[in-house]
Amino acid sequence: MAAPFVARLAERPLLGDGAMGTMLYSRGVPLDACFDVLDVNEPKLVQAIHAEYIAAGADWIQTNTFGANRFKLGVHGLAGSVQEINLRGVKLARDVRESMGRDVFVLGSVGPLGKYLAPLGAVEPDEARAAFREQAEGLLAGGVDGFVVETFSDLTEQRLAVEAIRSLCDLPIVATAAFTDESVTFLGRSPLEVVRALRALPVQAVGANCSVGSSVLYDVLEQMLPEAGGLPVVIQPNAGLPSRVGERLMYLSSPAYMADYAARMIAAGARMVGGCCGTTPQHIRAMREVVDRHVPGRAAVQVTQPAARLEVGEAAALGPQAAPTRLARKLDAAEFVVTVELDPPRGHNIEKLVQGAKLLKERGVEILDINDGSLGRVRMSVLPTAILVREATGLDINMHFTCRDRNLMGIQADLLGAHAMDIRNILAMTGDPPRTGDYVNATAVFDVDAIGLIRVLAAMNQGLDATGNSVGEPTAFCVGAALNPAAEEPAREMERFLRKVEAGARWVQTQPVYDLEVLDRFFAGTRPPVPVVVGVLPLHSWRHAEFLHNEVPGITITDAARARMRSAGDRALRIGIEMAQELVAEVRRRYAGAYLMPSFGRFEVVAEVLEALR
Predict the structure, then answer these.
(1) Distance set, CA 292 to CA 8, 12, 289, 473 (Å)
(2) Is the CB of residue 400 less than 8 Å from the CB of residue 425?
(3) How do the residues of the chain divide into helix, strand and coil, expressed in percent and rounded to 5?
(4) Which residues pair with 173 in a beta bridge?
(5) In contact, 539 and 572? CB cutoff 8 Å
(6) What pLDDT is stored for residue 405 in this prediction?
(7) Which pLDDT score, from 0 to 100, does residue 38 have?
């Protein structure tokens, strides 16, 4: 059975990544530094560059291990770190691949030893073979999909490298040589001699890379193709020849220029194209477009435009975030928001919930809140409920999300799943403890509270998880928070509210309010720093009012409201609806939105309250 890389190569031309050293240099790493040890010392910097190339559309990326052999590392006092650096180099690339979710190959980069072989130099063949084997062992331990034995001029040295790898495994090997602007290697070998020597080795692809730009390597390609003997040919030119501008090296070839040559190379017969020194993600992105045009019957690979260039320790440079949700658009436009809460069912049948949601949609509702295990009772999981309701109605979903039942890993896993399913409005809540519900002996988790959860969401929107590792493309969550303006300790509630806003909450939704003066007093006459969506829960009876006031945490009903319900008698439901309508009308004049909560599954009651907005 062919290795996956070889099978993919047989299907279509593949696009590689571009320069690693150039990108590190552009991030402030000196040219005389050891780039390879950054796999250990600055892993996020290396991962950010891998992520940019994957986001640009690369089908395969090379590890940051070009010089990670005992001789080159020895110059920096790191000869004893060969295994660690190579293993780490692979793991960094693989972690980025996993977090970004794209099916790309990770190939272990193996470059020349940096010393001449005997008799020209002092390195004996057995020493060279041992050095290459040592490096390959580290790359294998990291889990590479194959190897790139690249930028060689001495074909004997390259053969020793291939033999060392083959003594360990049968993974694919791509072998490339470096050429001068006279289309010969630095030891004077022609493209015909190179390709004849390389095709005699147990490798899966041959070609040329580095040292010169696209035009010279196009000529090299034309000479190699007739002699390749059916082996795929890879071409990875520099972005032209470098020139020094002040203290910086600059490469002149534009993305459009390199993309044009990439198209010509594929048309001529190249099966793998990419870039070497001076090539950036912008060059690879331009090549992606032309590569896709040479794949019959295949739609263009979906890639993302990178964000601004990353500094050390920042999230990976990834694509633009998804379009704002309907809720986010309304908040940004200062349009009045109306959202209605739905509780997931106690069982697994959501028919009643869907019918209620459709009724609300007919009455003009555009956004639904899906509760998450409120009052500590077992109900269907919030995420599948949200997805099923959204699919049945097409309404935007604001998913409540609590910290009670999930540890920090589970929280992040569920949030990533929600984003993948385009559930992106999240109301971050700590959650009711189990002792308030049916399972008083159940164990709560609470690794984080609502503030910590908001920070997790904000980090994901920067492309990072809670520990600072990349999650690939930044998420685009619209994050809200809960607020209880009638809290027994208003100063503490205000302090937590401000911390939630500082952590990244874009709006707040309140517990049910029955007198806006309570909310006004909470904010002490100042303008809230984020939009406030006011909770409105229609009362059904005097007993309902007393129950909510005395037994449900976070709900306080004014004496006047309870007295009005008590005197309503048989008309209590009608009076409850009228009170809710009056409140919604007043909320519309003073706050950002209304958050309506049906009791007892009475969606028709909320639908009638909505008449006040017509």
Answers:
(1) 14, 9, 5, 22
(2) no
(3) 45, 15, 40
(4) 147
(5) yes
(6) 85
(7) 97
DSSP string spanning 378-428?
Answer: --S-HHHHHHHHHHHH--EEEEEEESSS--HHHHHHHHHHHHHTT--EEEE
> What's the rounded Cα separation, in Å, for the pair 236 and 211?
10
Q: Tell me, letter by letter, the H, E, C secondary structure of 303-362.
A: CCCCCCCCCCCCCCCCCCCCCCCHHHHHHHCCCCEEEEEECCCCCCCCHHHHHHHHHHHH
425 forms bridges with which residues in the sheet? Answer: 398, 478
Q: Quote the CA–CA distance of 17 and 49 in Å, as a whole number.
A: 10
Type of residue found at 61: I
The pair of structure tokens assigned to 171 is 């993974």
pLDDT average per 10 residues of sequence, the chain (614 residues): 84 95 92 94 95 95 98 96 97 91 94 93 95 98 97 96 97 96 92 96 96 94 94 95 66 91 95 95 96 65 38 36 89 95 89 91 93 75 95 96 90 95 95 64 81 95 88 92 92 94 96 92 89 95 90 83 92 94 94 92 88 78
| pLDDT attached to residue 603 | 86
User: In this structure, are residues 128 and 165 in contact, taking their beta carbons and an 8 Å threshold?
Assistant: no
Q: Which residues contact 1 (CB under 8 A, 6 or more apart)?
A: none
Question: Alpha-carbon distance 207 to 271, whole Å?
Answer: 10
Structure-token pair, residue 107: 């190939």
Distance CA 421, CA 381 (A): 15
pTM: 0.66
* Torsion angle of C-alpha atoms 113, 162, 94, 31, degrees rounded to 10: 20
Q: Hey, which residues does 62 pair with through a beta bridge?
A: 107
Alpha-carbon distance of 504 to 483, in angstroms, equals 15
Q: Which domains are assigned to the chain?
A: 4-293 (3.20.20.330), 336-538+592-613 (3.20.20.220)
pLDDT of residue 248: 64
Whole-angstrom Cα distance, residue 524 to residue 520?
A: 6
Buried b or exposed e, range 393-406, using 16+ CB within 10 angstroms: bebbbbbbbbbbbb
What token pair was written down for 365?
């509702």
User: What local confidence, expressed as pLDDT, does residue 99 receive?
Assistant: 83
The DSSP code for 116 is P
Parallel, antiparallel, or unpaired: how do β-strands 233-236 and 14-15 relate?
unpaired
